[in-house]
Specification:
The structure holds two protein chains of two kinds.
Chain A (H helix, E strand, L loop, with lengths): L1 H15 L10 E6 L3 H15 L2 E6 L2 H10 L8 E6 H9 L3 E2 L10 H9 L4 E14 H7 L19 E4 L5 H14 L1 H12 L2 E5 L4 H7 L5 E5 H9 L4 E4 L7 E9 L5 H12 L1 H5 L9 E2 L23 H5 L1 H14 L7
Helix pairs in contact in A: 7-8
Chain B lengths: L1 H17 L14 H4 L8 H6 L7 H14 L5 H25 L8 H21 L6 H26 L13 H7 L2 H4 L12 H29 L5 H9 L8 H10 L4 H10 L10 H26 L2 H9 L4 H12 L1 H17 L2 H6 L6 H10 L5 H26 L21 H29 L1 E3 L3 E4 L2 H7 L14 H31 L5 H13 L2 H12 L10 H25 L3 H9 L4 H12 L1 H17 L15 H10 L3 H26 L6 H10 L1 H5 L1
Helix pairs in contact in B: 1-4, 1-6, 4-5, 5-6, 6-7, 7-23, 7-24, 7-25, 10-14, 10-17, 10-21, 12-21, 14-17, 14-26, 14-29, 15-16, 17-20, 17-26, 19-20, 21-31, 22-31, 23-26, 23-29, 24-26, 26-29, 27-28, 29-31, 30-31
Classes of the chains: A alpha/beta, B mainly alpha.
Chain lengths: 342, 716
């Protein structure tokens, strides 16, 4: 018994001793909100190039934002890389991140736009367009014609076949809501969402869940980000991807330096590294098909070609603001959520 | 008594002199603090005061001096006790005040914790010698230690989060928003009863929890009866099957159920093709979550109940049968009432687990919203509202409190002691025919179902794309656990890091959790002290709160000095300890209620003190409860997800967060392969634990069997 206790105490002592392994060039704490293989690739490549010791952990954007908020008095994270832009913008607006001062000259317009809105705190690293996916086999079996526009989704024949996330919990679904409002005007948008809502079998909590359900045939049609759908389709699921004919909105993934970071120089190095054309071109090695923000980076052939998709001029400043968000969401709760089903 | 005090004084002095006062981030390696003692960040209390003239530490130094003065003063008896109690109480207060008010450069380290515990135990030994009647230094020390630990690691962080429930949007505090959120129509509405859509999450949660609690208790009882009172052949297999779900990483059961019963599932396909059933999405919603929770939580009920069912004294049953009661009457009127503490505790655990469960509702919930997912998305969702999260957390706690009080009322004040000091011979009577058939009818199909679910899971790990491309492959395993012998052994799989971290942390958390849990149970069952009820409920708190809230509360409480733990492995261990402690407590309470107090009294009469009694009489009789607590806390440390999401850091990443990341990315293959490896690891560990802890030999039949197995023990 005492031996057990003593052993435990000794192990505890070893564990709690801060294990800071000092490389020659210091260390960096990164939270990655992209997919795990991409996170790993970035960390290894950065360590190799700079000699900085990277400690990385993957957390979703919502979790990261909650953690950064909770830790704001004594931040433990230096840099937050990847994940959809809205939470990065919120962090910037709340003063939780700080400008990195990195040159954004080589970046495409939408990436620079994000940096301008956040006054340099959040910089765009990739973009992904919103789209529709359908399960080829399910639709064939039911004898349904695939949708090609947002408006098609309201068709009665899709009753119980559509799945989409709940914008109250999912950033993906909020992007969809905001896209509808920008495409069709607010009243028309809610009317359409109400009609589509009659066909929806479930509003999922997470934004990537509908496409995964469509991939497995649990639902016929899903709404989500096209690069996620490409990843699923390329792993072998019978998933087809549609760029809606009316045009569509998009998300911008971002990188932010956390305010009060303990390793600010290395954090800036990371941001420079993440914006580099060569580094961004490597995402496809790990099956990620977002469109890179550096104009000189090569785009994977499987990536949804943003040039051929009708992209709306998404207004991140307006639709990212807390007031607009609260208004749109409460109207969604009232008009869309409990639509009687077809 | 004075000797004990001197020992603690020496320990305190040693901490003050030789252990670093603050966390020193420059120190590397286990013994590096020695070399750091001479530098300012790594110095001990004594060195800080003497060399670096840290004025804020002077009062604490003086307190230590005063304590030494009392110990060597030559006072004795009651005057010594009074002096010791008052001086150490003041010292402790000074130390706490320093921690809360002084401007600290870093988190406090071992020196401070050593000193604090020495002051605490000086205080408790003072108190124990003040009260001549119940003056047992060990018991008072234990009470003090548990109260401080629970206060520090349960109440303190939770208070941080709960205060947000009363925060108004403008930053001030008040109750106006609290009540409107607490009684909000969205939370409580009952439109599902009138046939119009779904009910509010609070109603759903409550309904689900009651169903799960009742059903897991029934199933657990059936399994426990079969395992202990029947001639069923494959008991071991049955036992393993009942333990499987508890050692399954989150999301995996949900995924397996979708692949079986989802709209495109195997069973659904089969029913569609052969019997013409429509393919529906029935598994998404209450039914799916309920089935998944039954699979997940029945083992907990089983673990609590098996010890209790075993512990019911055969002589009581024999007496009943001698008086011509049938087997059924004996069971109904003698055995079952004696199992009440077990049934009540099993129900309480099932109820609370169901309320706090997060993974199953997330995967299978559909539009069936429950509180735990609402709370999670109130924190991390597109619109984060920490006040709403806190209020919903309080709604959840209210339900827990209700269930807790209900349980107390149902148990009443009866005595359930059946293991007494008197020699208890005989063996348990077998079940009546009807009961046996019922148990088999309930438990065996369930076991078969569990087996099917698990073969699905294993199948998923060895096929290329679960559900679509069923060609055999080991690629998922090599990606996660690949290794290479080309130049020495190198582990190049993606999962090794988190695998070893997880095992290390779980192996440390398990004994600590069991220790704290059973010590608490001992206090609750055997000792009377003021505020016991509140104390008992307090131990349930961290279990009843969804993991996400616990995670956030730990960051809020332990990210800044005086106690800075974020980013270390210790914060994970502590979170696990206090989150899983209640299972040890409940199991311990249930098992200890059966041990007659005369056993303790006999031991004390023969001259043993409380510590010896616990060690030599109670602990050996608690075998199953200790095993359950160890197994459960070990396993939960490996499989819990919501609590660790905020607490994992790059240096201490856990298996579950790796798995969840892969599931989110749709890479089910590697996630399930990892889960399969974890399941096997846990099975092996549980087997080892079972060997170490061993079975208790309560009755003649057990002892006889044991002696036959090992003749050398019979001769010694």
């Amino acid at each position: 018994m005492f031996r057990l206790a003593a052993g435990t105490a000794a192990m505890l002592a070893i564990l709690t001793t801060p294990q800071v392994v000092m490389g020659n060039s210091g260390s960096l704490n990164v939270v990655c909100s992209a997919e795990q293989p991409w996170c790993d690739l970035m960390a290894t490549a950065f360590e190799k190039e700079t000699g900085v010791d990277v400690a990385m952990v993957r957390k979703s954007t919502g979790e990261t934002l909650a953690q950064v908020r909770a830790e704001s008095e004594n931040p433990k994270i230096d840099v937050w890389w990847g994940g959809t832009g809205d939470p990065h913008l919120i962090a910037a607006a709340e003063g939780l991140s700080q400008p990195s001062g990195v040159d954004t000259g080589e970046l495409l317009g939408w990436a620079r736009n994000m940096a301008e809105i956040s006054e340099g705190s959040a910089i765009g690293i990739y973009a992904g367009a919103l789209g529709i996916a359908y399960n080829r086999e399910v639709l064939e079996e039911k004898g349904l014609t695939p949708p090609s526009c947002w408006a098609d989704l309201a068709d009665v024949s899709y009753a119980g076949e559509i799945q989409v996330a709940n914008p109250n919990s999912s950033g993906t679904a909020y992007t969809e809501l905001a896209t509808f409002v920008q495409l069709f005007g607010e009243d028309k948008a809610y009317e359409m969402l109400h009609e589509i809502g009659k066909n929806v079998n479930q509003y999922t909590k997470s934004g990537s869940a509908p496409s995964k359900a469509a991939a497995r045939g649990e639902t016929g049609i899903s709404i989500g980000f096209m690069h996620d759908m490409v990843t699923l389709a390329s792993s072998g699921f019978p998933l087809e991807i549609v760029a809606p004919c009316e045009g569509t909105g998009y998300e911008v993934g971002a990188v932010s330096v956390i305010a009060g970071a303990k390793n600010p120089e290395n954090a800036v190095k990371w941001v420079e590294f993440a914006l580099d054309a060569g580094v961004q071109s490597r995402a496809v090695e790990v099956g990620q098909f977002q469109v890179p923000s550096n104009g000189n980076a090569t785009v994977a052939p499987e990536s949804p070609d943003l040039a051929s998709i009708k992209l709306i001029d998404y207004d991140f400043a307006t639709y990212g603001s807390g007031d607009t968000r609260a208004r749109l969401l409460s109207r969604w709760d009232a008009d869309v959520k409990d639509a009687e089903k077809n | 008594m004075k000797k004990t005090a001197l020992w603690w004084l020496a320990a305190g002095m040693l901490s003050a002199a030789c252990l670093p006062w603050f966390v020193n981030e420059d120190a590397q390696g286990p013994l590096s603090f020695l070399s750091g003692l001479g530098t300012e960040p790594g110095a001990s209390l004594l060195i800080r005061v003497a060399v670096f003239s840290d004025a804020a530490l002077w009062p604490i130094g003086l307190c230590l001096f005063a304590l030494a003065a009392v110990c060597f003063s030559g006072l004795s008896g009651r005057r010594f006790a009074v002096a010791l109690t008052s001086v150490s109480a003041v010292s402790l207060a000074v130390l706490v005040a320093y921690g809360l008010t002084a401007d600290l450069p870093a988190g406090l380290s071992w020196g401070a914790f050593g000193l604090a515990s020495s002051m605490l135990f000086l205080l408790t030994s003072g108190i124990s010698s003040l009260r001549s009647a119940n003056g047992d230094a060990f018991v008072v020390g234990l009470i003090g230690a548990v109260i401080v630990l629970v206060g520090l690691f349960v109440f303190f962080p939770i208070a941080h989060v709960m205060s947000e429930a009363f925060e108004l949007p403008d930053g001030s505090y008040g109750v106006s928003r609290f009540f409107s959120l607490f009684f909000a129509k969205e939370v409580w509405h009952l439109s599902c009863l009138s046939g119009g859509g779904s009910c509010g999450p609070a109603v759903n949660s409550l309904f689900l929890a009651v169903c799960t609690g009742l059903a897991t208790t029934m199933l657990g009882l059936a399994f426990a009866l079969i395992a202990t009172r029947s001639g069923f052949r494959a008991k071991r297999l049955l036992r393993m099957l009942t333990v499987l779900p508890i050692i399954t990483p989150p999301f995996v059961i949900g995924l397996a159920l979708i692949l079986l019963f989802g709209r495109a599932g195997v069973v659904t396909d089969f029913a569609h093709e052969w019997f013409g059933f429509d393919k529906t999405r029935w598994v998404y919603g209450f039914t799916g979550v309920f089935v998944a929770q039954l699979l997940s939580f029945t083992p907990i009920a089983f673990l609590v109940l098996i010890g209790v069912v075993e512990g019911v004294s055969p002589s009581m049953e024999e007496a009943s049968q001698t008086m011509r009661a049938s087997r059924w009457q004996t069971f109904r009127h003698v055995s079952l009432p004696l199992m009440r503490p077990g049934l009540a505790n099993a129900f309480l655990l099932g109820f609370i687990e169901s309320l706090a469960d997060f993974g199953n509702p997330l995967v299978l919930g559909g539009d069936f919203g429950v509180l735990s997912t609402e709370i999670y998305f109130a924190i991390v969702g597109a619109v984060s509202d920490s006040a709403r999260a806190a209020v919903l957390g309080i709604v959840l706690l209210t339900m827990t409190l209700g269930a807790f009080l209900l349980q107390r009322w149902w148990l009443g004040s009866g005595s359930y002691a059946t293991v007494t000091g008197k020699g208890d011979s005989g063996r348990h009577c077998h079940m009546s025919r009807g009961l046996k058939l019922t148990c088999y009818a309930v438990a065996l199909p369930w076991a078969a179902f569990t087996a099917v679910v698990y073969s699905m899971i294993f199948f998923g790990s060895i096929v290329a794309l679960w559900g679509y491309d069923n060609s055999f492959t080991l690629a998922h395993y090599t990606r996660a656990f690949g290794f290479d012998f080309s130049d020495g052994l190198s582990l190049n799989g993606a999962a090794w890091d988190s695998y070893f971290t997880t095992l290390k942390i779980a192996a440390l958390a398990a004994p600590l959790t069991a220790l704290v849990g059973l010590a608490t149970a001992y206090l609750l069952v055997r000792r009377q002290f003021a505020g016991k009820q509140i104390f008992e409920f307090g131990t349930l708190l961290s279990f009843a709160i969804p993991g996400t809230v616990v995670g956030i509360s730990y960051i809020l409480a332990f990210n800044v000095p005086p106690i800075e733990l974020t980013g270390t492995g210790a914060i994970l261990i502590i979170a696990f300890m206090f989150r899983n402690m209640p299972v040890g407590v409940r199991g311990g309470v249930a098992a200890m209620s059966q041990l007659d107090k005369s056993l303790d009294e006999a031991s004390v009469t023969l001259g043993a003190n409380s510590f010896t009694t616990v060690r030599r009489v109670i602990a050996p009789l608690l075998g199953p409860a200790i095993l359950a607590a160890l197994v459960y806390s070990f396993v939960r440390a490996i499989t819990s997800v919501s609590a660790v999401i905020f607490l994992v850091s790059a240096r201490h990443n856990m298996a579950t967060s790796f798995i969840v990341g892969r599931v989110e990315n749709g890479e089910f293959g590697i996630a399930i392969a990892y889960s399969a490896v974890l399941i096997i690891t846990m099975l092996v560990c549980i087997g080892l634990l079972q060997l170490i802890v061993g079975q208790r030999a309560l009755y003649r039949a057990d002892r006889k069997r044991k002696n036959q197995l090992s003749p050398q023990t019979a001769t010694t």
